[in-house]
Each structure stands twice: as structure tokens, then as C-alpha cells.
Batch of 3 targets.
Target 1
Amino acid sequence: MSEHFSYNNPEEFENKNLPKRVQEWEEKIQDNQEGYIDIVTVEEIFEYYLNKNDLLKAEALILYALKSHPYNGSLHFKQAAIDLEKGKMETALLHITQATSLQPLQTDYLQLKADIYAAMGKYEEALEILQDAMAYAQNLTDIYLQMGAIAQDAGLFAESEQFLRKSLNEDPQNEEAIYELAILFEGQQRLEECMKLYEDFLDEKPYSEIIWYQLGIIYQKINDYDKAIDAFEFSIAIQDTFMPAYFQKALVQMEKEDFESAIQTFMFVLAADKNDKMTLFHVAECYEEREMYKEALHYYLKAIRLDNTFVDAYLGAGYCLENMDEYLEASSYFAKVLDIETENVDAHLSLSICEYMLGNTHNAYWYLQQAIRINPNNIELWKQWADLLHENQNLEGAITFLEEGIKVNSLAAELYYLCAGYMFEANKNNRALIMLENALLLDKKGWDNFQIQFPTYASLQTAQKLFLYYSR
């Protein structure tokens, strides 16, 4: 047995809903009765608790049964699996060692023992155990698969690939082996091989929603958004309740800037789980991108109600209010961010902007200095504050601020281009040409944005001459 148990916080079950033997067992425990319990009953009750995801009661049952059957390998095996799931490695190792000494030819016991050693970081020992298990295993597919996963955890990527390929040789249509090998390729940025692996599998078994989903992820990574969406839609067509495919499809639609479609797709996820904070957050982002700030704020606040430490949601709510000219209310959300993350540069910058718009110049510059202190290399910080000064008719202040930014970020062509534009606007043409020349030296591609932002100054003969000279 190599899988781990999973469980939630157990709830008490009403006796009338319990199978008869489970009810009798729980009554015995409640009355603190000691006594014998037969193995058949243990197996029945154990399976019941696993189906209910109640690992605590399952463990209590096994420990009770071990008093009656201290030399039963299956009970020690089950307890070892529970201990592994709970992170109790030493006791897990004791129980699995006892199990393998009682039944040394049980391959599932050896596989669990390998998992325990791997969880302890003893990868070499784990692989040796599995190598020994091959002598008794009737099916090598799972053994090779497990060896591949353990080798990958150990950073032995070449060995991992060999094991996984051997697993596929045993069973070419093993979905888990395909997935593990693809994950290995993905981690090594071998995306073309990863894609081919998935596509070849789907040629033979086209009805796997998981593989279509994983293929969509790869298409998304190589920015082939249309194929990514197609893959996610195939996944959804096979299993229309597979929410990860809806969620990922919506993210791709966001990357395509099709925000209206993204909202519609996210709504399928919310229909399944209205309290999914990340989906609520992304819906808010979509509305914000569409400049529908009231709607965006509504969803940001829903996300915050679910998680009152959700920094990005507080920032999003603040940005919406800022764009609605509600600077005082926006400030309260940015301030909340600083309660959670005192060194958050975005919150400091946003507070500086809000304070400036509220006329609190002293506070504005204090927050600005904090933002610069935290991350002086944040180019957007320098650009946004310069734009703010410019929009508020403080052209000289914007130029001076950009010059300070250039001292700190001497290779940031964007700052040179912006400063050149403002210098032209201030009729400082000679200084502007020097600044523009430096910008072109650093990144001549930035000229396209300069033309868009400052078309009048970009069309000046002197500026055109500079561009032609440096674009040769």
C-alpha cells in the first residue's frame, strides 16, 4: 500500500446512520470496554472510517485491535500508513518493519516502507527497498512508477526518467506514469517533449479529462492560448464538473484580455463553490480591467470577507476606490495592507498617491520615501509618482524626481524616455535630446512607446535624427 490516507476534522455520526458493527464498536469505546475484536470486523469498520475520511477513529480502531492481534502484519501496515500520513516517521518505521518481518513477501508493505524512507529523506534506502521488492512483484508498473517519483524527489532526474519509461514499457497507457514523466519534462523546460507525451497518450485514450487539462497547461505556458482553451474545453466536455479546467480556462481568457468571457467562465466555478476566494479575486480583477470599479470592489470585498489577511484583495479594493476618486476610503485599505505586511511597497506607494490627492503633502512624501527605501529599483514606482506630479501641473517636480530615479536605476531606459518627454514639454530641448540619446543607447525598442506617449516630440527633426542614427 503506497497511497496515503486523507481526512477532515471528524464529526460525530448519529448512531442510527452507523452500520451495526460500527455502532457496537463505538459504544464499546465510549464505555471504555476492553476485549477481543476479530479481524473481519476490524477490516469492515476500518474501511467505513476511511470512506468517512475519519483517520482519528481509524487509528483508535487499529491500536485497539493490535492488543488482540499483536502479530498481525496487516494491522501494523495500516498503522504505519496512518503514522506516515500524520508525519510520525519513527513510529511509522517501527510498524512497517514489524509488518515486513511478519510478512516479508508483501510488495505493498515494501512499497510503504520505501515511502516512509523517502519521506525521511533517505532516498537511496527507499530505492534499494523497491529494487528488492521487484523480486516478489507480479506487476512492475507501480514499482517503477514509485521509483521514478522517489528519484525525482531526490533530484536524480535522469534516473527518474529511466524508471518512468520502464513503467510505461510495462503499461504504455498508464495515466499516472504519463503524468509523472510529463511533470519531469516540464520541470526541465522540455515542453515540446511534454506536449508530445500528452498528445500521443490522447491519440490512444482521448477521454482523459486530466490529461487534456495538463496539455492545456502546457499550451498556456508556451502562450498558445487558443489551443489551451480548446484543451480545457475538451476536459470540461469529458467531465463537466471538473472545476480546475474551468478555472484555468478563465485564467487563459484573462491572459488574452477577454475579460468578459473570463468572468462568465469563473461564474461556473463560483456556482460550484461560492466561497472560492481566488475565483472571487480574479472576477474582481476582470471587472477592474474593464474599468467597472463598483463591480470589482464588490468581489474584492467578498474575497476579503473570506480571508481578512488577503493582501492582494485589499490592494485591489484600494485601487478601485482610488480610480473612483475615493482617496480617503482607498487609504484605509492600503493601510490595512501595511498592518499585514509592513514593508509592502505597493501599499506605501498607493498611500503616497492618495495622501497627495487629499492635499496631505507631508504624509505623501513620507510614504513615498518608505516605498523608495523598500525597493528603489521598482521602476513603476518612479514612473507612477512622476506621472502623478505631471498630471497635477508639477512638471519641474516630475523631471527632478525622474532624475533622482535615474541616479538609482542608471540602466532603466523607461525612465530616460519619460524624462526626455517631460523635458521637451518644459522646453528644455537640449537636455531632452541628451536624455533621449541615453534612452536610445540603452534600448532603442523603447522608441515605439515614446512615439505613442509623446508623438509631437518624437516627430521633431532633432529627435528623428537621433533615432535614425541609433537604429542603424
Target 2
Amino acid sequence: MKPITLILALPLALVAVLHAGDGRALAPAEKLSRAVDDQQLIQGHGRLANATHKGPNPYRNWFPRPERFNEKYKIALVRNKDGILIKAESEYDLINREIAAFLTNNWIPAIRKTMDLGEAEISKVQIAVRPSDERLNVHENIVYNKLGERAPLLDHYTPKDKPGQRLPVAIFVHGGGWLSGNHRSNRPVAMSLAGKGFGGIAVEYRLGREACFPAAVWDVKAAVRWVRMSAEKYNLNPSFIVVAGGSAGGNIAGLVGVTNGDPRFEGDGEHRDFSSDVNGILSLDGAIGECSGDWTGGPEKNPWLYNEAIPLFHMIQKNRCPALLFVKGGRPLSAWIDANIAESHAQHVHFRWPHAFEVFDPSKDELVALLDEYLNAQLGELKRPTPQEGKLSR
């Protein structure tokens, strides 16, 4: 298979940013402070808070119980036939209307402004259409984790023409600014990738309107554990799991990927005898270097918690970036990471469509072709993460 041409820029101004003048490597606290001072070099793709003057990080061993962003804006929940609380259909209808408005008011104007497309091509742009599932095994509205009476759902798809084969898995995490969005918007991209020979999963997580950071990360890690628990039943490969997300979903996917083995991010979900480690991150114009203050209290009110919610912060602390593909956005940040993180596996690939391309057509199909090529190229290279001591490797 012809390899993808990955675009990596390494501006000279970035090459030695995080090294002291005497050539020694900077300690994490120094590196964080320098990174905060260097925001312009990252060109707005990194917004860390300088928390070093606030004393030691109080969240090194634990996180407070996640609270709702605002009591006024609660998620509407209903009981399913089993008495479990799930998201009401009215929530999905609301987001569908928001996506339709975004297409008309933002996405198509952005295409006209930034892309050289004729009106005939623009007329084909639409919210991603659900592909035919004739050749897919379809499992939707699956409870993957129970949190008391509440249960988030996932949808997963596998190809019918690969019986008995253990399929590599991609879990798609939807965007929406940490407070909005729904996993059904990722059904078309998950189904399309499944048609290429993968296990494609669209996962629901608790929004900030229900529980703020780190609840969403806990949920997606619970979904990873569910995949491993269910691997034999659905012919999934527990040794190859990647997380993908756009916008806020990219932030959450990034946090899942950079916190392998960190017990603080496991939460109190089910299937704890299975590992939540993943092999890599697919950032679909995701927020890898920033997050919303609404989700954490913000950089001024709670700088350490704010930083803990940013994947870049964890890369700096560990001096390591796992396998991370930036699709479209993040080229300056990818270069910054590559130049300043000792063990960097960050790559960047150009993508011509505007932000949120994973939920629209025809951009979704171009994205799936790109991910199919990238993931197949990585199958022989991405080794299974080594589970941390005390965690089972199943």
C-alpha cells in the first residue's frame, strides 16, 4: 500500500524552545512555564495555564467528583425498558437541528471562503448520510457502562465479510464544545470505516451539562474496557484500539491516549479487570492543546485542573507523545511537540475541508479513505500498550 505523505513542519524558532541555555533538558515544571510563555509560537493551538506559582498540583493523586456545569442546563434523561436512565430523544433532535444550522450558517460559507469548489460540488455538501448496512453487523444503543441508574450508550459496526478475524478498532468521540453534541453524529463515519475492515464505534459520554471533567474521559476509557471485555464476542482485536475525535472530542480522545495507566482517569465504571490503554490518537482538528474553562473552572480559577484537562500538559509532564495523527489542524502544535518532547510520535496530515469534516459529506468519505490508509500502515508498527503494574492485560 502506498504510504500517506505526512506533512511535518519544524520551524527553527521551535527547535530549542524547551531546553535551558546550558543545554540541559528542562524539568516538567520549567517546561510547563516555558510552554505557557511560548503560546504565540504554537499559534493559538496551546493554551496552558501557568499554574507553577500556585504551589504543587493538588490533583496528582485524585480528582474531585465531577459536577454539572450549570443546574439550569440539565440533560434530559428517560428510562429505557430496563429502567436505566439514558439520554432522551429530544436531546438528539436538538443537536440534529444545531448541526443543520451549522451546515447552513457556518460550514458552507467556510467552504466558499477557503476552497475552490464550484456550485455544483457545493450542492452535494450535506450532513453525512448513513451508509448502507447491508454488509455490516450493526449493534446500536448498547449499554457499555452503568453508573448507578445512568448508562451511556455506544454503537458499533463490523464487516460481515471478515468472519472470525480479529478486527482493529477505532472509537469515535463526538465534538460539541464539551457541553453539546451526540454520538449518533459519528455513526456514518464509524460505519464507513467498518466497511473498510475495522470495528467502528461511536461512543456517548457525559457532557458538561451532566458532569464536567474528567467524567467524559472516564466514560470513554470505560468504553475501551468494554471493547476488550467484548472482543471475543464481536471479533474485535484487543491489541489494536485507537481513539478518534474532532474538536472537543479530539481533546477527550487525546486525554484517553496520553493517560494510559493513570488510575486517576479510570473513574468508577465497570469492567475494571480489563485495560483501558489504547494504541494511538486520531485528532480530527481536535483540541489537543486547549480545553473549555466551562469544563474545568477555567485557567484563572483552577489552573491545575484546567491543565489536567489538556493532552499537551500530560505530554509535557511525561516528556512523551504517543502515536498521534493530527488531521488538518495542529500543524504548528505537532511541530512544537516534535521539536520539544523527547519521545514524540506526532504526525500531521493536510486535509482540505473545514472544521467538523467528520460529520458531513463528502468530506467524511475522504477522511475514511485517509484513516484507512494510515491505520493499515500502522498495524504493523503500533504495538500493544504495556499494561501498568497491577492492571490486567486482557
Target 3
Amino acid sequence: MYVRSLILENYKCFDIEAISFSVPKRNTNDASVNNYTLIVGDNRSGKSAILKAIAFNAICPILSGSGFRPVFLSRNKAVKSSERVDSDMLVGAVKGTYLLSESELDIEFAQRQAFVKHIQKVVDVKFDPAKIPSMLGFAVDFQRIVTSSQEKLNYFIVNPFEQITFFEDVISKIGVKDFFENFRYEEHLANSVLFGEFSPYCFVAGYHPSRRIELAEWNAAAMNRQRGIRYQRVAGLFEEQVSLRPLTGWFQTLSKQRQQEVEHLLASLLGGKPIRLTEAPQRDIYVDLGDGPLPFSVLSDGYRAFLAWTTDLIGQMCDVIPDTMALTDMTGIVLIDEIDAHLHPKWQRRVVQDVTRTFPNLQFIATTHSPLVAGTVHPENVLVTELQDDGTATVRRGTEALIGRSANEILLSSYFGLDSTRSGPVAEEITKLLRQATDGDQDAALKAMRLLAGRE
């Protein structure tokens, strides 16, 4: 499953915004397969909010009882009278459309057929389930009392616009309200193999910038009691205290063949650097990067942070993938907040390519503040979030080519919008000196030249 588009209505910092995403090209030998979208923008401009919107919208059918707690989803804006809600209520919605793989489409088609038969037991209508739209869509509506942070969700509405068109005959007999209250297709989806906890279908994972991992404190049973497994895969985006699953929680349970596959994938993620994983004392695991085995817990912050989310992702995939299927054939959505976090600039220059090349059938959507990361992607794969004067945020598609440009040039581009890459006081001093030089002050001109050359 891949997210194709998203509509945000009165959500977080967004008023009304429509966003489209790059999706992997299936069955193609094109070397420039685009399975990623990179989101750049200033702080508070909605980058993380977009990732969170995808995360809870994509698992919409199982959201109820998953452990997800909606807090401050709706914007703090005055409610218009035309919205026909109580004056002390804030309302909003996130609507997403998703492309399914061939196997997912087959399962979903069978589910639609069963849904049609269910309706026909109650309402005497005839229709062809093959004509039901194949595009899967979820809408999550939320509302919040002005004096409270806790939201009430009205979700599980699946493609209401397309569903209404297809089920016009049914709706004309029983009405829209009764239709959506009595024939909830999303409940059929939630109980199907598409959204089973250990199903490889409709896979979604998300990662917070902290990349928190606790070797000694990890307790799978406790996590399962508190959160549904599908929600666990994205919970870190919403709850910073949620730690990622350590290698010790799953690697040793794999077959030898699957362990070798995992090590091969990790080597690819590390730019071709060989890696060996072996069991270590005290619930740790040895990581050998070619210079001798070290416990995972004593690796440098950069390696530990990167391996924390990538091994968690691979572990989640190993939990659900059939034994006969390669991990690289897995489809799904991976959301990464600040993909450059904890990485040296040299690593930032290749991280997107390493990740997307290793998993060509996964759709990656990541945020970054790094011009080095932005300089490795094509403009059609970039979204720019911008904060407006009224406090709302907007999203636009990238237009400027960045590949081949220096970090300094990228920071001065429309993607980052800096007017100078020098420190504020120095930039102000240079501006002042140049103004004085224009008025004929030769000493100011010489000092400005020395500052520009870095010799002052």
C-alpha cells in the first residue's frame, strides 16, 4: 500500500491543504525509480504534522482500541457558523487515498464482494461489486471542545465520496446517515487479512527523530497490552517515550537464511560496509563493522541511531513477511522524521539513496533540515512547507534543481530561504560596512572585504 494523496482540513497548522506524494514505480527497470518524498521547511511549518497525518490515517480501520490518543489535532481557529457545529467545538479532518499492490487489490476485492452480500441481506438492490472503486481511501474526522486538549474521533469512513456514488441506490432507500451507521465497510476491512496484526499487507512504520532504543527495558508483552501492534509501528511519532525494538528482541529468532539476508540489507543501508551480528551478554548484541565486534549499546550515536530505526523496520517486516518472500519485495509506507538526525555530513549526502535503493518497493516519506540531504534529490520529490503570516502552513512542490549545487547555494535557495549563511552579527556587520563603503569610506570597504574573505 502506498499513500497517493492527502487532504488536510483544519488540522494542526493547516487550514485546507491537498498534498500528493511520489510512489514507487512497479515492474520497471528505470534506474531513477522514485520511491521517496522529502519534506523541507522551517520549524512549526507542519513537516512532522504531515507524517503524523499519514500515520493515523493509513491505519484508520484499526485505530479504535489501538492505543492511539488524539490530542490537539484540530487547529485553534474560530469556527464558522456555516460549519453548523456548536460554537465551542473545533473540527477538522484528514482524508487520504492509497494505491494497493496486486495482492492487496485481490484481497480487498474479495472483501468488497462479501460487503455487497452483507448489504443485500438487508436492502433489495442489485449492483456489481467489480464496479466499486479500486482506490482505497480513509477519512478521519475529529472534533475538540475548545477548553480541552482531547479529541473525539469520528473515523472509519472509507471513500465516502466514491462510496456514495456507487451505493446511490442503497442510499436513496435508507439515507446517507443510516447507510454509514449500518454498513461500515471499514469494519470489514479491520477484520480482514489486509489489516491483521501480523499481515504483510497495508504495512506502515514511522520514526521520531530521537530514535530512542532501550535494550534492558524492552518488554514486548507490556507493549502489546498498551498498544495494538500496527499502532506500535508508528507510535514513536506521537509518543516520544516509546522506544524502538532492539535487535535482541527478534534477530536471534530468525532462520539462518533470514539472518544472512538481514545482514546483507544492513550492509546495503550502510553504503556497502559489511556487518555481522552475533549474540552478546546482558541482552545486547555484537555489531561487527569490520574492525571487531562491539556491543550495540557502545556504538557511536550516529551508527546507533541509524541502526535503531533501520533494524526496527527490518524486524517489523520480518514479523509479517512470508518465509518464501524476500524482504526487498515488501511494499508499504515508511515515515522518517529528520532522516539526517545524528548523521555526519558525509553520511547525510548518501542516506536517501542508501535507504531507497535497499528497499525499492517501500515508499519513504521523510523530513529534513539538512541542505546536504536536500541536495541529493530531484525537485519533483521535494515538498516545501511554509508558514504564512496568519499562522497557517502551506505546501508546495519543489521546482528548483538542487543536485550538483553546494550546501551554501541550497541554503540560499527557495527551499530554505536564508538570505545569508553567515552568522547574524557578521552578516549585519558586512551589510553596515558595505553601506559605508558605498558612501566613500575606504576603510569600511577594506574591512568588509576582509570579513568576506574570512580574514578578519
